[in-house]
Task: structure prediction
Amino acid sequence: MRLGQLEGIFVKQTKKGCMQELMGCEAENEFKLYESKDSANGVEIGYSLEKSACFQRTCCKNARGFDQTIWAGSKDARGDTLMTMHKELSCGAAPCTCCCIPSIEFKGADGAVIGSADIPFFWCLPKVSVKDPSGVEEFALQQPSCCGGFCVNPMAEGLCNCKLPIYIYPPGKGAAGEEVGKIVKLWRGLGTEVFTDATSFQIELPKGIGVQSKQRLLGSTMFINMLFFEKGGSGE
Result:
């Protein structure tokens, strides 16, 4: 997968472990990557798998620690490692606390740190802060808001389209029209949404960003999925 040439990425979580999830234990996350939603039945351009402890998945769910790798190619024909991610066990009450906030570290294929993401303390709407290797905020990921930032704007992507957008803002921005890209959670059907945690996201990448920036946004999408769209998360 040549991230430098992509303007968007379609991230499709598999239904791996759906029976396990129905019994109350989270399954290890598994994702397939495509260039777009329209090519989701075609050739995979990437594959990702989480590794975590069964005890933490059962008892800590979306607060668990894990390691995750993203490879080029498909599940059955993995290519080179594109990046790895590491998250420590976090407090179940976070991020509405002043400490122990959820955070994740991203590393490149050579093992060097290429950035991180975390969720700072918030009063109303949570924000994911995506940072470069030096710890400087590069992007802020947040749902479109209204009422002075106190509420989610349900009209941002139109009504009755089953889309849940998370906008990509430059640091210090967050008003309507200031977004430079977006991550949209797509509806996958009643059976999938109700009985599994399998989600799909279309990432529309900001124009002109580098490969490492794209890696950080891809990893942050999977971070968001675990925190807010797994059962037991604040998105449930």
Observations:
- The longest strand covers residues 78-87.
- Residues 190-196 have pLDDT under 50 and may be disordered.
- The radius of gyration is 17 Å.
